[in-house]
Specification:
Structural class: mainly alpha
Number of strands: 0
Order of helices and strands: HH
Distance between the termini: 115 Å
Helix content: over 70%
Shape: elongated
Number of domains: 1
Number of helices: 2
Strand content: under 5%
C-alpha cells in the first residue's frame, strides 16, 4: 500500500532535522561573533601596547590611564565572550518554554475568562439593583411632588407669592 503523503514520523523527523540545522546555523553565527570579539580584544591589546610605547616616551603618567582602559576593555570582551557561550543553552531552554506555553496560556485564558464572566455577572446584578432602587426613589419623589403640588394649590392665600 503506497502513501501519497509523508507519514507523521517523517514529518517530525524533518522538523527535528530543520531544528538541528537552525541550531547549527545559530552556533555558527555565535562562533563567528565570539571570534570577532576575541580578535577585537587582540587588536585592542596590540593598539594599547603601541600606545603605551609611544606614551612612555611622551607622557609617563598616561600609563595609569591606559592600564585602566585596557583592563576595562579586557573585562568587557571577556563578558561578551562568556555571554555568547551561554546563548545556545538559553535558546534551548527558551524553545522548551515556548513549547509548553500554549497549553499554559490556554488554561490561563480560560481561567481569566471565567473569572471575568463571573465578575461581569455580579456587576450586572448590582447595576440592576441600583437601577431598581433609583426607579423606586424617582417614583416616590414624583409622588411626593404631586402630593405637595395638590396641597399647595388650594391653600394659596391672596398676597402669597406676589409683590409687596
Amino acid at each position: 500500500m503506497e502513501y501519497s503523503s509523508k507519514c507523521p514520523t517523517d514529518m517530525s523527523q524533518e522538523r527535528l532535522i530543520q531544528e538541528l540545522e537552525d541550531t547549527k546555523e545559530q552556533l555558527k553565527k555565535q562562533k563567528t561573533l565570539k571570534e570577532m570579539y576575541i580578535n577585537r580584544g587582540k587588536e585592542t591589546t596590540r593598539e594599547l601596547e603601541r600606545l603605551r610605547k609611544y606614551s612612555d616616551d611622551v607622557y609617563p603618567y598616561n600609563n595609569l590611564i591606559l592600564s585602566i582602559r585596557y583592563e576595562t576593555d579586557v573585562t568587557e570582551v571577556r563578558q561578551q565572550v562568556e555571554t555568547l557561550q551561554h546563548e545556545p543553552q538559553k535558546e534551548a531552554q527558551q524553545r522548551k518554554l515556548l513549547q509548553q506555553q500554549p497549553k499554559e496560556l490556554k488554561m490561563a485564558q480560560t481561567s481569566s475568562q471565567d473569572k471575568f464572566t463571573a465578575e461581569l455577572q455580579v456587576e450586572q446584578q448590582k447595576n440592576k439593583l441600583l437601577q431598581d432602587k433609583l426607579d423606586r426613589i424617582s417614583e416616590e419623589y414624583e409622588s411626593e411632588e404631586d402630593d405637595r403640588g395638590n396641597q399647595e394649590s388650594p391653600a394659596k392665600h391672596p398676597g402669597e407669592g406676589g409683590t409687596l
